[in-house]
Amino acid sequence: MNSDSNTATKTAIVTGGASGLGYAIAQKFVEENIRTIIIARNEQKLQEAKGKFGNLCSYIVFDLTNLPQIPELVTGIVEEYGKIDILVNNAGINLKKPFTEVTDEDFQKIMLTNVTAVFALSREVVKTMLPHGNGAIVNISSMAAQYGIPKVIAYSASKTAIEGMTRAMAVELSPLGIRVNCIAPGFIATDMSAKALDNDPERKNKVLSRTPMGKLGTPADIAEAVYYYASEGAKYVTGTVLPVDGGNSIGF
Fold it and tell me: In the record, which residues are listed under signal peptide (predicted)?
């Protein structure tokens, strides 16, 4: 237990915590008595999430592509809540476009949000974890880093970078007490994916046919895996990428 006046055992940051996978992760953390700070751009969604999650949740409206402001963001969190124990780098954006139509700006925008912002936030949070000699970072990858998916070149590059960064961070930071792991979600039923798959029956059939379990996952499936990595149960686990995908990544 920290010496915090509240009963929370730990403090976590979840980026993109107001919707989709981030929402489920934040919900799981709060259920497990972890003080959870959700960060996203949409204040209305953040307010709604906080309303559902209660007093152990707080939110910050912030655009993570605003790199110069990230150090100040992290300093403010530490000043208010004491130390940061867990960081979940969940926020990310996708772009579906034929390869030759992706502009330099398109590509850079995805890389900025999905890679550079993750790096910058992790760097600043790690600075605050080092004096305590412990911490857990969980990055979110994708099936796009496990095998080739057409029309998502920038997203694929960004998520492959996340897996490489996970290993590099783990090797450097684990001797200092900070574990770094990564989850590669398969096809998960969220509002966003439902829209994409329902509008494209051929793609939906392809997804299900190469998923041995024959169904989509739920956001809660990802949340359980993230919680495992963030918990003491994974205290000897670092530098790994865990597919939570119903077997999709090895499906035939």
Answer: none
pLDDT at site 197: 87
Closest by Cα among 167, 21, 6, 181 to 80: 6
Residue 233: inside a domain: yes
Residue at 198 is within a domain: no
* CA dihedral sign, ordered 30, 76, 141, 205: positive
Q: Which residue among 155, 228, 229, 236 is the active-site one?
A: 155
Pairwise CA distance, residues 139 & 252, whole Å? 27
Q: Is 75 a domain residue?
A: yes
Calpha distance 39→34 (Å, rounded): 15
For residue 167, what is the domain's CATH number? Answer: 3.40.50.720
CA quadruple 60, 118, 171, 186: dihedral positive or negative? positive
Annotation marks residue 155 as catalytic: yes
**φ/ψ bin of 151: left (φ > 0), alpha (ψ from -120 to 50), beta (otherwise):** left
Length of the chain: 252
pLDDT in tens, 120-140: 999 999 999 999 999 999 999
Domain count, the chain: 1
Q: Are 224 and 185 in contact (CB under 8 A)?
A: no
